[in-house]
Amino acid sequence: MVKRLRIPVPAQGLHEITDAIAEVVLGAGLTEGLCTIFLRHTSASLTIQENADPSARHDLESWFNRLVPENDPHFTHTDEGPDDMPSHIKAALTSTSLSIPVIDGRLGLGTWQGIFLWEHRRTRSSREILIHLR
Amino acid sequence: MVKRLRIPVPAQGLHEITDAIAEVVLGAGLTEGLCTIFLRHTSASLTIQENADPSARHDLESWFNRLVPENDPHFTHTDEGPDDMPSHIKAALTSTSLSIPVIDGRLGLGTWQGIFLWEHRRTRSSREILIHLR
Amino acid sequence: MVKRLRIPVPAQGLHEITDAIAEVVLGAGLTEGLCTIFLRHTSASLTIQENADPSARHDLESWFNRLVPENDPHFTHTDEGPDDMPSHIKAALTSTSLSIPVIDGRLGLGTWQGIFLWEHRRTRSSREILIHLR
């Protein structure tokens, strides 16, 4: 089964989507299987990160912003704004798809793991993901 | 079903393989499911990127070339040429496998998404991928 | 089928787990299918790399250590030690899940490919992975 989900992204940064995915898994009534999440965009991405301490996410985001700064004089793809090319690069450095086994009817995440949609653009209102379950 | 595909790579850089994968999906007659692409090499990789404007790919490639320059004096693995170690690093930073849901008999890619084989070596003629469909 | 495996990680760095995964695939008696490996942690990761020459792994690790040095003055998430925040960043830059097609009853890896659990922390004794096969 494939389910389409629209995720609100009020701002740049990491948005946790663990609960939204867990709800789809629960609703599917699958006891054991595989859950694959796919993001239908190239200037945002998916990542699994610690969801306990927000400071870890803050440091992760600011490290990526220092690695891929806006207004790099080498960039030629600048028509869509200074945050566009860094967004594509950050997406390439992280993930567009993630696969998580389902055990005992639930996502087999570790204790500290959360699933995040990482919005790399500054002005976006929502993103679409596909969830495949089997 | 698993299909083996040999992809010609005439040069270093991003080579779009969306059509080749789409053809395999169409040929399989699968209405809904999951398409997993696996690259059988460690000095090339897979990525999903914008396939509209070539300048985005150009900037992505040149950014990676600046991040991982050849002839880094720290490298000890240099027997296979100056482009070999940067290739392994770029492969680790991107992806060896990608999973894309199939909906209505087609790859569930977003409007601007293309699938690319990223050749990191300078002299290669082809690469092998495996496509799993179910 | 989902199998849980505990992997000993005696030290920081790349630990090859190809044989452990191959054994699970063999034991499952699957002729053709997909093997998905999922790591249940956020300060370690998975990667597929060359398993022939150890110097390639050495250079890969030391390059990542130079890219994400400990004691970055920008880090605020420092309670769990100087190697914690770099671990989360390295995990985001690599992979938490990997999918490898199974062909003729075996992992469809290329000749030089090995599967590695990349331990980013300095003091750890083991990590848990889930292996989904179908």
The name of the CATH architecture of chain A is Sandwich
**So, the CATH homologous superfamily of chain A?**
YjbQ-like
Largest sheet of chain A: 5 strands, antiparallel
Tally the helices of chain A.
3
- Which parts of chain A are unreliable, with pLDDT below 50 for 5 consecutive residues or more? none
Structurally, how many domains make up the residues of chain A? 1
Given helix and strand content, the structural type of chain A is alpha+beta
Helix content of chain A: 25-40%
CATH class of chain A: Mainly Beta
The CATH topology of chain A is Jelly Rolls
Description:
- Three copies of one chain form a homotrimer.
- Chain A is α+β, with helices and mostly antiparallel strands.
- The first copy, chain A, has a single domain (2-133), classed as YjbQ-like (Jelly Rolls, Sandwich), CATH 2.60.120.460.
- Chain A has helices at residues 18-28, 54-67, 84-93; strands at 2-8, 13-16, 33-39, 44-50, 97-103, 106-107, 113-119, 126-133.
- In chain A, the strands form two sheets. Chain A has a five-stranded antiparallel β-sheet with strand order 1-8-3-5-6, with helices on one face. Chain A has a three-stranded antiparallel β-sheet with strand order 2-7-4, with helices on both faces.
